[in-house]
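Title: Comparing notes on inverse folding

I've been comparing how different people in this forum approach sequence design from structure. To keep things fair, I'm posting one structure and asking everyone to reply with a full sequence. Here's the target:
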């Protein structure tokens, strides 16, 4: 009899990120440990808890609420941040250590209420469905603004402390890509309760395309990780790596004037491979006729997602303070 092969056949190989097998199993090679929510973070006093947005298929979120000092009988109203974590659409979580610590720090600094959406991951979940999960998360948050037709049981932190005149959307890396697509949809489709997105920030957005720009490698451009991740996780995307979902300034893409928010902040890092795309995106929004204010923040000497993976270093704290100021800016 011949020998029996026990090795599984690999279908998708994403260096440093994951390995997916043809039998449907997925081995994630990166990511930080999950941490539980905490009723009072010992360093910041921020409280966090996990909630379910939808049971089947499951969409969850982690809420972060700053420590509030009682002033009167009326609950204090706070800006609401709907946040999408990064991780190439395929790793990390709203419950991950680095994402939890980053948002805890931001919430304490900015005195905001953050809702970090726990969307499903690729390749188990198609990329467009991830975007739908995140849109549904935003709609669920907005549904707390209405008395009739909202959730059967309202989440008390949102109902008591959410200021629905100050709703923000944000994301980092692939989360920023998600945020961009959510904002484009918000420019087309209504949000529950007629909610308008006051502003959005995209830090180190994961955009790419077939043609190199700026200092991107001119040879083997299609062998760079941003190209491999998108084409591996979404091989049927119309336009491939030049789908407007990942290349928002490709010829024929919807006008960026349609972004559904009042203000926009784009952040890039000097050493980040994705820096040139973030810079081009910022300029493209300005040139599109977008009616809101557009800000660019560049972190010198820093690399991709430094303010999350090294959230305790001084430069990360400076960045977090800058984002907190954006969320608290009054027009």
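Reply #1:
Here's my take.
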């Amino acid at each position: 009899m011949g020998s029996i092969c026990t090795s599984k056949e690999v279908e998708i190989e994403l260096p440093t990120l994951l390995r997916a097998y043809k039998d449907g199993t997925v081995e994630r090679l990166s990511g930080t440990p999950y941490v539980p929510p905490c009723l009072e973070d010992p360093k910041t006093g921020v409280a966090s808890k996990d909630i379910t947005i939808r049971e089947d298929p499951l969409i969850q979120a982690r809420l972060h609420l700053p420590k509030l000092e009682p002033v009167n009988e009326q609950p204090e109203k706070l800006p609401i941040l709907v946040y999408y974590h990064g991780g190439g659409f395929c790793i990390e979580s709203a419950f991950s250590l680095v994402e939890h610590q980053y948002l805890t720090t931001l919430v304490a600094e900015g005195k905001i209420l953050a809702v970090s959406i726990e969307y499903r991951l690729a390749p188990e979940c198609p990329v467009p469905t991830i975007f739908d999960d995140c849109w549904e998360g935003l709609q669920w948050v907005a549904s707390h603004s209405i008395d009739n037709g909202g959730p059967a049981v309202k989440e008390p932190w949102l109902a008591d402390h959410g200021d629905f005149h100050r709703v923000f959307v944000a994301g980092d890396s692939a989360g920023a890509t998600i945020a961009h697509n959510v904002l484009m949809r918000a420019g087309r489709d209504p949000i529950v309760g007629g909610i308008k997105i006051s502003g959005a920030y995209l830090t180190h957005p994961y955009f790419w395309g077939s043609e190199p720009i700026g200092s991107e490698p001119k040879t083997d451009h299609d062998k760079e990780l941003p190209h491999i991740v998108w084409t591996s996780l979404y091989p049927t995307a119309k336009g491939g790596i030049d789908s407007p979902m990942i290349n928002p300034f490709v010829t024929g893409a919807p006008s960026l004037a349609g972004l559904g928010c009042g203000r926009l902040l784009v952040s890039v890092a000097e050493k980040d491979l994705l820096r040139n795309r973030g810079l081009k995106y910022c300029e493209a929004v300005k040139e599109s006729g977008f009616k809101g204010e557009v800000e660019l923040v560049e972190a010198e000497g820093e690399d991709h997602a430094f303010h999350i993976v090294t959230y305790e270093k001084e430069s990360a704290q400076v960045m977090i303070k800058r984002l907190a100021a954006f969320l608290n800016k009054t027009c």
